[in-house]
Specification:
With about 200 residues, the chain is an all-alpha fold. About 70% of the residues lie in helices and about 0% in strands. It contains ten helices and no strands. The longest helix has 22 residues, at about 155-175.
């Protein structure tokens, strides 16, 4: 179909099919071809950004996803904002990523948004904030219908990992320093071995 009629719409449709199958490189190439002749819609930019994110091309993903969220910050149920924030974090642009994650939390309460924001805050050493966000997500599990628990199980597991990791970070930060033997003062009188 695309060979017979290489229109932007046909390349977008083929890109959609390839994206659904997880074939990110060929899907990206289709979106490149579609965007070569038509740039009036943000959808191919978003989908190309998804492909670039999955391929690890963070800089290209940021460029496409910034364009999308500039037009519609809640595009794809705020997934564009989520992928933008994650791409910025992967590039080491921490201050921008922090702003993007803050905006994500204002716009969305989806399981994915909460889980990835909690992971980001944990990685930044903000264990208490990370734990609070993860708890918010896990508190909803009780009232989720079964289909939603199945659909969101990967995000629920990741939130559980954040809580465990943040608890470990908190316990190691609160633990007293280990006592050394050579430099510590001893209650044992000089010249007498301990335990006698």
């Amino acid at each position: 179909m695309v060979i017979e009629n290489p229109s932007a719409g046909n390349f977008e449709e083929l890109g959609d099919l390839l994206l659904d199958e997880g074939k990110y490189q060929p899907a990206k190439e289709c979106f490149d071809r579609a965007l070569g002749s038509r740039t009036d819609s943000i959808d191919p930019f978003y989908k190309r950004g998804v492909c670039e994110f999955e391929l690890g091309d963070w800089a290209a993903a940021v460029a496409d996803l910034e364009r999308v969220v500039k037009v519609d910050p809640k595009y794809a149920y705020s997934r564009a904002q989520s992928l933008l924030a994650r791409s910025l974090a992967k590039l080491g642009r921490t201050a921008e990523a922090e702003t993007a994650f803050g905006r994500l939390l204002e716009l969305s309460s989806s399981s994915e948004s909460l889980a990835v924001a909690a992971e980001f805050y944990l990685a930044q050493g903000r264990a208490e904030e990370a734990r609070e966000i993860a708890r918010r997500l896990l508190a909803r599990k009780v009232t989720m219908p079964a289909f939603q628990r199945r659909r969101d199980r990967v995000w629920l597991r990741r939130a559980s990992k954040v809580i465990r990791a943040s608890a470990q970070k908190s316990s190691t930060a609160a633990a007293p320093p280990a006592r050394g033997t050579a430099t510590e003062e001893s209650n044992t009188p000089p010249g007498r071995a301990p335990g006698r």
